[in-house]
Specification:
Blueprint lengths: L5 E8 L2 E6 L3 E6 L14 E7 L2 E7 H4 L12 E9 L2 E9 L1 E8 L4 E2 L13 E7 L2 E6 L1 H5 L7 H10 L1
Parallel strand pairs: 2-11, 5-7
Antiparallel strand pairs: 1-2, 1-8, 3-6, 4-5, 6-7, 9-10, 10-11
């Protein structure tokens, strides 16, 4: 591997592999948590969790990507990470099927997304990584969340923290 190596946390939705830069990840929460649904938020916002006294919104990536709900399993988890909202940094949970590994990716291991000529807006995809004999989709969570998920959520979060 040439150049700077950046570690990413890999996870799965169905059979597809995704990854986010590990420096954005705060923790992985395993097991079943009570997720409280919120009104007036995007369909992909699953709700909020109480994480050691802090209210944390949870994004359902399956809903965000238009995938059907997967079966519940012991491998389901919530990855908490920092995202940039309009009001500043926001601790956010992302519900995924399973966490797979930590990938150390150099510049030679990834490439930009090819031009898909009329495909949907995929600005939230930072690139494609070739590692361990498969392709992993590298996500930019700030751009992914900027696509309407935080609309209404930040106001609801302000109301909750003021209560």
């Amino acid at each position: 591997m040439n150049g700077n190596v950046v570690k990413h946390l890999g996870f799965k939705l169905g059979e597809e592999h995704y990854a986010v830069p590990i420096l954005t990840v705060r923790e992985i929460i395993w097991g079943v948590l009570d997720i409280t649904p919120l009104p007036r938020t995007a369909r992909s916002i699953k709700g909020v969790i109480n994480l050691r006294g802090k209210i944390v919104p949870v994004l359902d990536l399956r809903a965000k990507f238009g995938l059907p709900q997967g079966p519940a399993s012991r491998e389901n988890c919530i990855i908490t990470l920092m995202a940039d909202g309009d009001a500043g940094p926001l601790l956010m949970g992302v519900h995924v099927d399973s966490v797979t590994e930590v990938l150390a990716l150099g510049a030679d291991d990834s490439s930009p997304l090819p031009d898909l000529h009329g495909g949907g807006d995929l600005g939230f995809v930072r690139g494609l990584a070739k590692a361990k004999g498969r392709v992993t989709i590298l996500l930019d969570m700030d751009k992914l969340l900027a696509e309407g998920d935080l609309e209404g959520l930040e106001n609801v979060m302000k109301e909750l923290s003021a209560a």
